[in-house]
Amino acid sequence: MTTTPRTVVISGAARGIGRAAALHLDQLGWQVFAGVRQPDHAAALRAVASPRMVPVQCDLTDYASLHHAAAVVAQHLDGRGLDGLINNAGIVIPGPLEYLPLDDLHTQLAVGLVGQLALTQQMLPLLRPRRGRIINISSGSGRLVRPLLAAYSAAKFGLEALSDGLRLELAPSGIRVIVIQPGATATPRVGRHHRTARCGAGCAARSRPPHLWRGAASVARCADCHGALYHPTRTGCCNNCPCAANAVPACPLHRGARGAGRCPAVVPARPPARPFDADVACCTNRGAGRWFPPAPAYER
Prior knowledge:
By secondary structure, the protein is of the alpha/beta class. The chain has 6 helices and 13 strands. It has a 6-stranded parallel sheet with strand order 3-2-1-4-5-6, sandwiched between helices. The chain is globular, with a radius of gyration of 22 Å. It starts with 6 loop residues before the first strand and ends in an 8-residue tail after the last strand.
């Protein structure tokens, strides 16, 4: 007698937590509908998964894509209903709120908050027949705001609220809503925003924060000469970078510290007080004093 496998939709299954969950459930005999944004991600999953796995094009900012994904899932289910939905896809766009471009804030909320509900709305008709389960992957940032991650926290705080509301509203239908708050996880999403920061004034000089998750000292270094530019656990910027022949502007978090933001001596490197302290990198554009971290669309 052939047993019908249980079914689940997982968004953000191209890498990280989503990929690990998709492959694990596939190994347990589930039929996994793996949400990905790019065809090569779908091919990579097919290469290592069983024939049961069905990669589905799923872009949380494209509602037509979500509607099509639901139609594909419904076609494969053939009236059986869906057992679970894991809202895992997410991005991190770091930066100080004072300088964060509003378009970046819209993107963060579109993916991390609005898109989560949009996918849930599309899948709910499939979940009802099986009284399926919704699992929302939140974060500790949904309970605590850290510097430079306020936009990300805003999305996660909102996801917590949506989860509470869905839990109350769907209880009469027998659909459970669960929130998971993972701790620090070694995925491509974490650490990718530590790459070269871009100056808000478009200068050529760029600074590269260290990779904190590997125990690097919390000193941002000039991408041109590798001289220490900024030590976030102390005050101000160090002017020992040969590339910055003129004034080094003050860092956004320590503006005015020690005069114009300069440190009169080289500040020795030491481990950060907490993760992400070194997300701030000072621009060496001789007075521009503004910087923004890169904001690509990271998947978990």
